Amino acid sequence: MRYMQYKGVVEREYKKSLRKIMYEICVVEGLNASLGAKKLGVAKEIFVFWRSFYRLDKNQQLFDQAVDSLDQMKFLHLNEAKGIDLSRPLQHEDEQSVEGLEELIERMVEHYKCKHAESGGLDVETGKLPLYEFAQELLKEYKNGSLLLEVKSKKK
After folding, report:
1. CA 97, 100, 106: angle at the middle one, nearest 5?
2. Does residue 99 sit within a domain?
3. How many CB atoms lie within 10 A of CB 35?
4. Gap between the Cα atoms of 27 and 6, Å rounded
5. For residue 134, which phi and psi values (nearest 5 degrees)?
6. What is this structure's pTM?
7. Is 90 helix (H, G, I), strand (E, B) or coil?
């Protein structure tokens, strides 16, 4: 039999499209190629072909999710970058304080968001953006006291 003949047999047996059947077996049930092929009553090679065709292999799914999240972030930073003026003067330029650090981190976050928007997410330097966003979050936790509480809770 050919792939299309196997497809017809499986679809008639399950009364669903092959895409739905493969989704249930690969994603919902999480079966590997051997068990999935056995369940459908087809050769492992056919099952692997179908799984690859419908992009239901775990690595393919992870890749597709990564691409989707990059696309979403591209538009997210594109909208945020429109309202950023990087040429405005720093207020705490001549001092070394928590406020000065906070302002510098905020400016670096803005800088990398603009770079991300300009390059369409392809600039390698924009990989530093999550680091600066994390530092920004830590500063917020420090200022509102939750970081101190967390450190004290870890002592016990």
Report:
1. 140
2. yes
3. 14
4. 21
5. -65, -45
6. 0.54
7. coil
